[in-house]
Amino acid sequence: MAPTAATLALSAKPHVHALLKRLHSASEAQEKSLSQSWFWFKRLLTSRLFTWKWDASADDHMRDKFVALEEDKCHFMYLLVRGSGALNVVEAGTSFGVDVSGRVIATEKEPTKAARAREHWAEAGDEVAGVIELREGDLLETLKRDDMPEQVDFLLLDIWTPLALPTLKIVQPRLKKGAIVLADNTTMARTWYKEYLDYIHDPVNGFKTTEIPYSGGLQMSVYLPGEVN
After folding, report:
1. Which of 108, 116, 193, 227 is the 20 to 30 Å CA partner of 210?
2. Where are its TM segments located (predicted)?
């Protein structure tokens, strides 16, 4: 079998590759649908013209949506985790459990999505399910628990943009020097990410950062507190 982008990037058993291919295909089709494109366009336009915040109607619309990292971003994240030797990964925003790598503390507030994620991890087997702890509920509470790892090596922010900065601030005291932080769709949703971007661009907060030109944008930051600018 000829190598694919997934098999070149990810070390996994064939049934895991097949599962990921199926879920990524479903997620991509959903994101490209007319209804989903209109959903994002309408809200981005509204937020630029008026004051708009995420509301209950948006939650209802997204309840059965993947909201997952695109496949190429997942490959990039996986290789960063492997290459950096990250032992403790925090994934803020699990959705249906499309992207999994490292030893992960995952968060998800929507019970139906948490259940689907567990089904997918169980289908993948212990090499995936065995390294994930899923914390259901409000991540601003579940990530404050005393049983968090003392050191976090990698943080993925794949959540509603107003939660990005509060989540970072909760996890930041546990970030090791050199920890990597990824935030998704920072180009597409730059207006919504303003407070987060202002924070990581301020040298006093200890981050070095750059934007990776993936679709929608992917902000990569490295935590280097105390370094001279």
Report:
1. 108
2. none
